[in-house]
Amino acid sequence: MPHQLPGSFDPNHSDEMIQLLAKASDLLLSGANYDAMIDSVAKLLVSSLATWCAIDLVNDKGEIERVAVAHKDSEKADLVKLVLTKYPPRPTAKRGVYRVIATGQPILIPHLSRSDWEARAESEEHLQLIETLGSSSYMCVPLLVSSRVVGSIMLLSSERTYSQEDLLTAERIASKISMAVDNVVMFRKMQATITELKSTQEQLIQSSKMSAIGTVCAGIAHEVNNPLTVVRLYLEHIENAIEAYGIQDESILRYMQKANTNLDRVVEIISNIKTFSRQSDFCFATVDITAIVDTSLALFEEQFRVQRINVDKAFPSEPVLLAGDPSSIQQVFVNILSNARDAINEQPRSGGEIRIAVRKNDRDVEIVISDDGQGVAPSAKDRVFEPFFTTKPVNQGTGLGLSISHGIVSRHRGEISFDSVEGHGSRVRVSLPLNFNH
């Protein structure tokens, strides 16, 4: 039967136990890595107080997590792990580790006979393994922080019969471990909080930057659009004059063609800038994502055929409905498909493959578009959503496609991510919530 610790016991009877406590204190104050420290304490316990032992902690979910095991015979350490993994303590048994953690009270069983283990073992194999490890005396002590149980230490021995003195020593070591564990838990929580605050701060800064860029872009687009209209008008006048006077000079015609081509490019850039800076003209409706992806693909059908780009689709059999602005969502997929096409065409080989997968769960729908194109350099991966950043050659692309897509997806309370391996293709993942009150 378990025995409670008498409060009047004097622990100074054993130099060995005093030295054990001193060594445990040194380990816990060594500043070593947390996991290494707990592992070292377990090894210290089997060097002086146990044949084998296990240290358990209660994680944030309230589950018991085994963080260290040790055996006096290092070759049997893996056997300990096997036994504790294959035959873990059962919560329904209401004994051992679970009882100690539930009650906060230690357990001491000085003598455990074979018949005692037969009653506890789950199989003949289990019993043989316990006997092989050496388990004739048992104690388990809680790890307490201000009366709160944060874990336990289980010790078993085949070489000594545990006494109240041994139990007191184990509790004192447990007390020191508890303080170290609590310090580490608080430190990790503080680190997590700081990381979350930094992330939030960076998001706010980025949001502020994007808003400022949008405002500036809108102003620039407006100011540039007026003279651009004038340039377009005068080019039309020149074209009319060339036709009226029957001018056939090839160089003049070629210059006019280049002027119009570049003017069209400027108009496209201005249109993209306006789209990027636009904030409130979305028109939400119930949309079918698979239908929008198919419509986007149809725009590239002839190009993909000529350029020998194969498209592999994996769509659900049923429509995937959600609230969104259909034209802007389509723009996202057109931008992604356009980039995939260009990346494949940058490869020295001819043709390639684009894979599109649409997956739905209870909360959102995930659209993954990947290609086997050129990919981007590692240094560029983190910049692909920046306005005006592009990996394409000069005069090809405005660097606004993915930036615009990021803004559209964010407006839908979704997420977009980009991953790439240079020379081996890229993957864009878009996640949109199924239930979104815009």
Topology:
Blueprint lengths: L14 H14 L5 H15 L3 E7 L5 E8 L5 H10 L9 H8 L3 E3 L4 H7 L3 H10 L3 E9 L2 E10 L6 H81 L5 H28 L7 E4 H18 L2 E6 L6 E4 L1 H20 L6 E9 L3 E8 L6 H4 L19 H11 L3 E7 L3 E9 L5
Parallel strand pairs: 7-9
Antiparallel strand pairs: 1-2, 1-5, 3-4, 4-5, 6-8, 9-10, 10-12, 11-12
Helix pairs in contact: 1-2, 1-7, 5-6, 7-8, 9-10, 10-12
Question: How is this structure best described in words?
Answer:
The chain is built from twelve helices and twelve strands. It has 438 residues and is an alpha+beta fold. Helix 1 runs parallel beside helix 7. The chain is elongated, with a radius of gyration of 35 Å.
Main beta-sheet annotation: 5 strands, antiparallel
What share of the residues does DSSP label as strand, in percent? Answer: 15-25%
Question: Helical percent range?
Answer: 40-55%
Return the string of H and E elements. HHEEHHEHHEEHHEHEEHEEHHEE
Low-confidence stretches: 1-13
* Number of distinct helices: 12
Silhouette: elongated
State the gist of this model:
The protein is of the alpha+beta class and 438 residues long.
Give short descriptive properties of this protein.
alpha+beta, 438 residues, disordered N terminus, 12 strands, single chain, 12 helices, 52% helix, five-stranded antiparallel β-sheet
